[in-house]
């Protein structure tokens, strides 16, 4: 592990695989069973009571709370300015948007709830995250294709490599409704993931063990090109990647030609919009970190390196993860 490399030190997730890191570990050991997110006890995750939260923001807040706890990271006055947030969402707070527009149609603008209106912005969730957890560093919100969760992660990666921030939280959250059901095959789910990223030397200084490095990243027009860029940045050819997790639309034929074991993200973790690839990345991180062989996913040995690719007609993103030897 070299100075300046970026490592993942915390994982928080709420989605069809379950809640928290332990749910991912259980899924790796026993096989993945997908189910909708149940009712969450917000008092178990948040510092203060809330009068209203869109489900998308609610899940993002819970995932971020879990990630900070997993990383054993406390954001306080002395470090708040060096902690940043980068967040992706394809649909944003669509439940609130639909509710507000229904009020406007039925009651008129003057009687529509202003509370709903302020929770309908695309950047509402990342704003609430920064306020709730006292984050005062750089803040980004990406609201585009299904790959914007990985785009948010790549932005966080860059903030650390350029030493603009000491810690970056990278997350994504999406919630489908009957109006916004995806066109791809598979059941739509709500999901949110937050990862804590730090430079390796800072993690060591905090006394935190980090076994997974974010080794490379790429943005491009296609999934195959994004993966090539990520591999080049990681100085790793395709044979060095043990496991590929990709959207079914991410140029599957070209990617499969690399003869790497491939996992369909949507079939494996459910279609969670921008959170799909981030959930796959969290799954790969735990697998690499704990040196496990995922049950019923077809791998023959515990992987040492993995790539996650997400793409749609608007673009693509890819990241490469590598296990650091103990």
Main β-sheet description = 11 strands, mixed
What does the overall shape look like?
globular
Query: What name is given to the CATH topology of the largest domain?
Result: Peroxisomal Thiolase, Chain A, domain 1
Give the topology string: H per helix, E per strand.
EEHHEHHHEHEEHEHEHEHHEE
CATH architecture of the largest domain: 3-Layer(aba) Sandwich
Helical content class? 25-40%
Structural class determined from secondary elements = alpha/beta
Beta-strand fraction estimate:
15-25%
Number of helices: 11
- Give the end-to-end Cα distance, rounded to a whole number of Å: 10 Å
Can I get a quick summary?
Helix content is 34%, strand content 22%. The chain is of the alpha/beta class.
Secondary-structure blueprint:
Blueprint: E1 6-15, E2 18-19, H1 21-30, H2 55-70, E3 83-88, H3 94-107, H4 114-118, H5 124-133, E4 139-142, H6 148-161, E5 167-174, E6 191-199, H7 200-206, E7 212-220, H8 223-233, E8 243-246, H9 252-256, E9 261-264, H10 265-269, H11 275-289, E10 305-312, E11 315-323
Parallel strand pairs: 3-4, 3-5, 8-9, 8-10
Antiparallel strand pairs: 1-2, 1-6, 1-7, 5-6, 7-11, 10-11
Please characterize this protein's 3D structure.
It is built from 11 helices and 11 strands. With 326 residues, it is of the alpha/beta class. The protein has 2 domains: 200 residues, Thiolase/Chalcone synthase (Peroxisomal Thiolase, Chain A, domain 1, 3-Layer(aba) Sandwich), CATH 3.40.47; 110 residues, Thiolase/Chalcone synthase (Peroxisomal Thiolase, Chain A, domain 1). Strands 1, 2, 3, 4, 5, 6, 7, 8, 9, 10 and 11 form an 11-stranded mixed sheet that branches. It is globular. The mean pLDDT is 90.
């Amino acid at each position: 592990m070299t100075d300046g490399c970026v490592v993942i030190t915390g994982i928080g997730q709420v989605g069809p695989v379950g809640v928290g890191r332990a749910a991912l570990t259980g899924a790796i050991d026993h096989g993945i069973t997908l189910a909708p997110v149940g009712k969450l006890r917000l008092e178990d995750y948040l510092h203060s009571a809330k009068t209203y939260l869109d489900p998308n923001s609610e899940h993002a807040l819970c995932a971020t709370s879990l990630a900070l706890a997993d990383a054993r990271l406390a954001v306080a006055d002395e470090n708040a300015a060096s902690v940043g947030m980068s967040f992706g969402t394809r649909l944003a707070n669509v439940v609130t948007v639909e509710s507000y527009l229904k009020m406007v149609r039925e009651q008129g603008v003057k009687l529509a709830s202003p509370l709903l209106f302020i929770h309908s912005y695309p950047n509402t969730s990342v704003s609430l995250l920064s306020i709730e957890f006292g984050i005062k560093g750089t803040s980004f919100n990406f609201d585009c294709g299904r790959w914007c969760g990985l785009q948010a992660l790549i932005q966080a990666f860059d903030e650390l490599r350029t030493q603009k921030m000491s810690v970056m939280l990278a997350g994504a959250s999406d919630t489908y409704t009957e109006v916004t059901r995806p066109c791809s095959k598979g059941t739509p789910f709500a999901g949110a993931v937050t990862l804590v990223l730090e430079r390796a030397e800072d993690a060591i200084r905090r006394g935190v063990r980090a076994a997974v490095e974010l080794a490379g990243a790429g943005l491009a027009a296609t999934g195959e090109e994004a993966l090539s860029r990520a591999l080049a940045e990681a100085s790793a050819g395709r044979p060095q990647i043990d496991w590929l997790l990709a959207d079914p639309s991410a140029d599957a034929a070209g990617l499969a030609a690399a003869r790497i074991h491939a996992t369909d993200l949507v079939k494996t973790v459910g279609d969670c919009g921008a959170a799909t690839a981030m959930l796959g990345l969290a799954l790969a991180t735990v697998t690499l970190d704990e040196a496990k062989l995922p049950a019923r996913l077809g791998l023959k040995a515990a992987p040492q390196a993995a790539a996650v690719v997400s793409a749609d007609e608007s673009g693509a993103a890819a990241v490469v993860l590598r296990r650091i030897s103990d």
